[in-house]
Design goal:
- By secondary structure, the protein is of the alpha+beta class.
- The protein contains four helices and six strands.
- Helix content is about 50%, strand content about 25%.
- A hairpin with a 6-residue loop joins strand 1 and strand 2.
- Helix 3 runs antiparallel to helix 4.
- The longest helix is centred in the first third of the chain and has 39 residues.
C-alpha cells in the first residue's frame, strides 16, 4: 500500500521539498484531480467553440452571411444548410438549422435509418444563439457508388424542400 501512495505522490506537481503526511498527500491529490477536471472541461468548451467556428467558416464560403451578436463568426442567413462528405462507405453530415427547424434532426435520423438503411454511428448537436449545428456520421451497408450519392441527394432534396 505504501508503494501506491508513493506512486500517487510522484504524479502530483511538487510544490515543496519536505515530505507530506499521508492525509495531506491524499488531500493534495484530490485537489489536483479536481483542477485537472476543470481544465479538461474548459478545453472541451474551447474545442466545441472552435469546431462550430470551423463549421460556420466552411458554410460561409458557399453562402451569404451576417454577423452574429454573441459569437465572433459569420452565420449563414439562409437556414437550413446541409453539407455531406463521403469517405468510402462513411457519410459525414453537417446540418445547420435555426430553432424553428428542430424537427429536422429527428427527420434526418428517420430518413437515414428507415428509408435509406444507413447505420448512424454518431449524432449530435450544439446550439449557438438561434443556430443549431447538427452532425451525423453514418455507415452505408450497401456500399456501392450509387448508395452514398443516392443518400446525399435524398437528404439535400429534403433539406431544400424545407427552405
Amino acid at each position: 500500500m505504501e508503494d501506491l501512495y508513493s506512486e500517487l505522490n510522484s504524479l502530483l506537481p511538487q510544490t515543496s521539498r519536505e515530505p507530506l503526511p499521508l492525509p495531506d498527500q491524499l488531500d493534495e491529490a484530490a485537489t489536483y484531480i479536481k483542477e485537472l477536471q476543470v481544465n479538461v472541461e474548459k478545453k472541451r468548451e474551447t474545442k466545441r467553440k472552435l469546431v462550430i467556428t470551423a463549421a460556420l467558416d466552411k458554410l460561409n464560403s458557399t453562402g451569404s452571411s451576417s454577423m452574429s451578436s454573441s459569437v465572433d463568426v459569420f452565420v449563414p442567413r439562409r437556414f437550413p444548410r446541409i453539407e455531406i462528405q463521403e469517405t468510402g462507405p462513411i457519410l459525414h453530415i453537417s446540418l445547420v438549422t435555426n430553432l424553428e427547424h428542430k424537427f429536422m434532426f429527428h427527420e434526418i435520423v428517420r430518413v437515414l435509418t428507415e428509408e435509406l438503411g444507413a447505420e448512424i454511428t454518431h449524432a449530435g448537436y450544439s446550439i449557438v444563439d438561434d443556430a443549431v449545428f447538427h452532425t451525423f456520421d453514418c455507415k452505408v451497408e450497401d456500399c456501392d457508388f450509387g448508395a452514398t450519392s443516392r443518400i446525399s441527394e435524398s437528404l439535400k432534396k429534403f433539406v431544400n424542400s424545407v427552405n
